[in-house]
């Protein structure tokens, strides 16, 4: 059973950098795709980006200039950094695994999710 | 890359069937067999119900089914139960190693 747990500061000041870490147990971050998804209060889900295979990343076009996802394989963790935050970045941030399925195999859907971390941007 | 379009809300009585639509474009829903559906109860993480347009993960009730025609995917819930009251989101692969979610649909069981 794969488990994910988000950790990091829950209050960030405007213009600063939001940083979260996802700790994975029951699975290896070296062998799967791992993503970040966020959800502003009362709103829908937004995919932010993913990392896989020792550091290959891709990001949402709308956030590409501000987001970075990295990994620490020794700790089986991956992290999110979002810089120059504003109040619009206030959201619950989820980490999730992207499962590969189909033929040919392709990253398909988000099967395991963390419980989510509410990060508030406020001075 | 715009969010997929879902109705804001749907409702049904216990035992009835409802269908939630998810409309995208030829660059996402219409181009790949990679639409997934998620159920989210308040304060909880999303849970996958359908993947690859029509497949159900192990442990998901047969009452949940997915279909797709052109640029529109659909989730049907049959035999509505009180515990089905939740928010539902579609998601599609959108090319260039990106994904896009729908705006979400709130289901009320009357």
Entry summary:
The complex is a heterodimer of chains A (123) and B (110). By secondary structure, chain A is mostly beta strands.
Defining key terms:
A: 123 residues; mainly beta; 7-stranded mixed sheet; B: mainly beta; 6-stranded mixed sheet; 9 strands; 0% helix; globular
Question: Care to describe what's here?
Answer:
- The complex is a heterodimer of chains A (123) and B (110).
- Chain A is mostly beta strands and 123 residues long.
- In chain A, 0% of the residues lie in helices and 56% in strands.
- In chain A, strands 2, 4, 5, 6, 9, 10 and 11 form a seven-stranded mixed β-sheet that branches.
- Chain A is globular, with a radius of gyration of 14 Å.
- With 110 residues, chain B is an all-beta fold.
- The model of chain B has no long low-confidence stretch (mean pLDDT 96).
- Chain B is built from no helices and nine strands.
- In chain B, a hairpin with a 6-residue loop joins strand 3 (35-40) and strand 4.
- In chain B, 0% of the residues lie in helices and 44% in strands.
- The A-B interface holds A 35, 37, 43-47, 50, 58, 60-62, 94, 99, 101-102, 106-111, 113-116 and B 1, 3, 33-34, 36, 38, 45-48, 51-52, 55, 57, 89, 91, 93, 96-104.
């Amino acid at each position: 059973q794969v488990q994910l747990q988000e950790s990091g500061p829950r209050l960030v000041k405007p213009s600063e950098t939001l940083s979260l870490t996802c700790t994975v147990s029951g699975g290896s971050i070296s062998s799967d795709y791992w993503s970040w998804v966020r959800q502003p209060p009362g709103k829908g889900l937004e995919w932010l980006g993913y990392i896989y295979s020792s550091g290959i990343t891709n990001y949402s076009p709308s956030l590409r200039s501000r987001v970075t996802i990295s990994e620490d394989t020794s700790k089986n963790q991956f992290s999110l950094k979002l810089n120059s935050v504003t109040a619009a970045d206030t959201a619950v941030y989820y980490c999730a695994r992207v499962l590969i399925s189909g033929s040919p195999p392709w990253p398909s859907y988000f099967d395991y999710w963390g419980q989510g971390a509410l990060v508030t941007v406020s001075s | 890359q715009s969010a997929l379009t879902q109705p804001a809300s749907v409702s049904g009585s216990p035992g009835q069937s409802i269908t939630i639509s998810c409309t995208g474009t030829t660059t996402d829903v219409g181009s790949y067999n990679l639409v997934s559906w998620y159920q989210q109860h308040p304060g909880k993480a999303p849970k996958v119900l359908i993947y690859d347009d029509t497949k159900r993960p192990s442990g998901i009730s047969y009452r949940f089914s997915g279909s797709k025609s052109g640029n529109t995917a659909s989730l049907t819930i049959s035999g509505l139960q009180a515990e089905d009251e939740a928010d539902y989101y579609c998601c599609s692969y959108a090319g260039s190693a990106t994904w896009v979610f729908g705006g979400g649909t709130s289901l009320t069981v009357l």
